Each structure stands twice: as C-alpha cells, then as structure tokens.
Amino acid sequence: MKNNHQPALNDLNIFVAVCKANGFRAAAKRLGLSPSYVSDTITRLEQQLGLPLFTRNTRTVRPTEAGTLLESRLAPLFAEAHAALHDLGGANQPVQGLLKLNVTGAVMVDILPNLIDRLLVKHPGVRVEIMVDDRLVDAIAEGCAAGIRYGEHLAPGMIAIPIGPRWQQLALAAAPGYLAGREHPTHPHDVMKHSCVRLRFTSGALTAWDFERAGEKITIDPPSHLVLGVDAAAAAISLAVRGHGLICTFRNWLDPYFTSGELVPVLPDWWQRFEGPRLYFPSRLTPAPLRALIDVIAEAHDAVAPVGDQ
Most-buried pick from 52, 107, 108, 298 (CB within 10 A)? Predict the structure, then answer.
C-alpha cells in the first residue's frame, strides 16, 4: 500500500546514485554507505511510492520504466544542487578550466573575438577552444559547453542569449570603380545583370541573397563570377573592393569599407534586417568558464549606450 509520507531528499539522492552506479554495492561505495543501508533505503522508497523502481536479479539491478522516468527528472535537480553548493564554496576562487564553443564563422570577425578577449583578461585561468562550423550541428553533442548560431532551432532544455547586436542587416555593396560606367541596380532583380562575388557554406550551399522592403521579400540567385568559402569572407570582400563585382554579406563587415569609401551601398532600401547571433547552452549545469562568459556578455551589453536597434 502506498505510504502518504513524502520520500526524504536523502533517500531520493541514494536512488539516483543507484541508477548511475547500476547497482547497490557500487552506489554504496560511492556514497560511503553500507550496501544493506542502500538496499533498505530503496525498499522503503518503493513502499512509499507504491511501485517498484528497480528490477533485481543476482547479477544486475536495472531501473523499471517508472524508475527511469523518476531518475530523468531528479538527476538534473540533484546535479544542479551539487553545482550550486560547489559554486558557493568556490565563490571567491579564480575561474579556471576549459571553455569549448562551437560557433558559426560569422561571429568570428567582429563579435566573438572581443568577448573572448574580455573573458581572458578578466579570467586568465580559463582556456578557450573554438570550433568554427557553419553546419547546423548539435554543439552539445559535439562535446562543447555552448554553441553560437543565427536563428537555429533549439532543442528542449536549451536557453539562448544574444551575444552581439540585437539586429543585423544583410547589405549589398560594390566598389565605385566597378559601378563606374555600369547601370546601377534600382531593384533586386537588376542584380542578375551584374558580376557577383558569392560565399559558400561548408555544406555546399551558397549564402542566400535576401532582400526586403515594405513587406515585400525577394530572394535571388545571381550569377557567380567568384565563389569563396565563408571562411574566406575577408578575401571575398577584398576582391569586391578591387572591382570584381557586387557582394552581399553582413553590414557590420562592410561598414568599415563604406566609411573609407572603398565600397558603396547598393539598394540600401532593400537591405534585410534579421536577429543577431545567440549563445545557446543547456539550462542546467553551466560550467564556471561558461558562466564567466555569460557574465562578460551581460557586462558588454550593459556598457552599450541606449540600445535603439542594437
């Protein structure tokens, strides 16, 4: 018969330990308890809940379906509690350890390097490894603490925070010398008449040239006079500066060239706005180096003057 008393937290912690150790004796050794005490605790817990949590034989101890479900809910909670206690005890200790990130190459030009610089200056004991990958991979499954992407669908249990400008734009540009003597585009379809410098993702797909104005959206696939991988974006911009055609890419990459006059805006009324990149990670068990990066991101955001379109 089911006992109306709620199980003790210590009993539930022992239950989780048995699940992780795949046995009473192994769990008892890890917890510093006697196997009989662990076995009695599980028996008491099963009586209180009114259902079996493990199937037992002479060789193995396996969670039942109910046990598996209970462990999947409890394990993250206990792990987070242990992490919180660990952090409290080490609140005044230097942040150390490896921070491994899986990121899209787009953030490596002028967004992420500044944040990593601030992180390492503030926490010199942190080591950073960055995997640049433009495929839509599961960063956590790849062994990374977090990922950075644009608009990627997040798995359940993930949270995401902006790491740079709240909004960015896809800008079209050309060198003044290229446009000299040529008909300037007045509509996105006019781009089809021009030579273009294109970028290609690691997956093999060309980056999209998307335009939008007053609710009208147009995607074009212009002729590719030159095609470079996205990891060579700087070279692609350099070739556009030298007059080899139109280029369509992140406005923040092109702004310095607009300022210098090496490139000029083309069809600025049609530049599409989109959400900036986000750092995503599991909502629990955030390692100390990642928490330090999150703090740096928050500090950088707070340091920005009134956000407007940031």
Answer: 107
